[in-house]
Amino acid sequence: MQSTTSNTKHNHIRSHLPLPSNTNTTSTAETKIDTLYHETLGTGPPLLLIPGAHSTGLIYTNLAQQLSRYFRVTLYDLRGFARSFSSSSVRTTLQTHIDDAKTLIHHITASPTPDPKKPNKKRYRSIHIFSSSSSASIALSLLKNPDIHIKNLILHEPVLPTLLPRPYLTHIQTQLQLHVFSPARPCMAEINRHLVSMTQTREGWEDFKRTDAYKAIERFPGDYSLGFFGDVLPDVLEWEVDVGMVREWMGGEGHGGGGKLALGCTGAGYDSLLDS
Question: If exposure means fewest CB atoms within 10 Å of the residue's CB, which of 47, 119, 163, 239 is most exposed?
Fold first, then answer.
């Protein structure tokens, strides 16, 4: 697949990567191609920032600029959200976004020189990955792919509900059912009001609203990320964590000793739950 570059300036590249269709229908010349909008900044080892429920790489703009001094940072919008396009009315699932992340990683890590032992097979460089919130299940799923060589994976405030104590998980599921999944006309403002109370302090939310990233996201339609909560979040809530694999990676034994995983959590961290 060839990425369509729309703008390049000071090692800041904005592109649209063509994606396989999300349906089984035969495409025509008039059918628009699904694309994954992504930006790449800086030089150095590749680093991918995977967005959570905001569904857009805009959430990482400031972080990407800081890290671009040390890495070749790629941020992107999930398929069908913000600046990425989906031609299908079929809902995107968690698996859709896992597959898209694999496609993007292969695109940005492909080596220009083939494997001398297997000249017909592409070689891929190792990559660092940063994931936040509800994209944790996407990132952890990538650990199981033998064609993706992850050097380090950082999970920031990961949403991994199946690791939580059953009473707390039940409370979250009940609140989401009432305010996210059940309303006939769900509203992002109402969803945010309930989710913020479960995931962060009011002060933290107000601080975020003063950032450039929030101002940029505000330019999208108010319900641009609504599909994530209706289509993808139910999958996230039921996604089972491979605890053994996570422990292996946290011990620095991923990929047979070449990969590491770190958790960044506030409050009751998942690291204690993994030991229970």
Answer: 119
The answer to whether the CB of 45 falls within 8 A of the CB of 71 is yes
Q: What is the pLDDT of residues 232-243, one digit of tens each?
A: 988 998 999 999
Alpha helices in 89-230 (DSSP H): 94-109, 136-142, 166-176, 188-199, 202-209, 212-217, 226-227
Q: Which domain holds residue 38?
A: 4-163+240-274
Residue 30 placed within a domain? yes
H, E, C per residue of 96-114? HHHHHHHHHHHHHHECCCC
In a domain, 41, yes or no: yes
Q: For residue 65, what are its two tokens?
A: 């600029």
User: How many domains in the chain?
Assistant: 1
Residue 266 included in any domain: yes
For residue 231, give the nearest of 50, 55, 20, 17 by alpha carbon.
55
Closest CA to 36 of 90, 91, 74, 93: 74
pTM value is 0.84
The secondary structure of 162-174, three-state, reads HHCCHHHHHHHHH
Q: Which residues contact 44 (CB under 8 A, 6 or more apart)?
A: 70, 71, 72
Q: Which one-letter amino acid corresponds to residue 180? A: V
CATH code for the domain of 97: 3.40.50.1820
CB 156 within 8 A of CB 130: yes
The pair phi, psi for residue 254, each rounded to 5°, is -65, 145
Alpha-carbon span 180 to 272, nearest angstrom: 29
Instruction: List the 150-156 sheet strands across, edge first.
Output: 4-9, 12-18, 35-41, 72-76, 46-50, 127-132, 150-156, 260-264
Identity of the residue numbered 53: A
- Residue entry with tokens 């059912």: 177
Residue with more model confidence, 145 or 253:
145
Q: What 3-state class would DSSP assign to 235?
A: helix
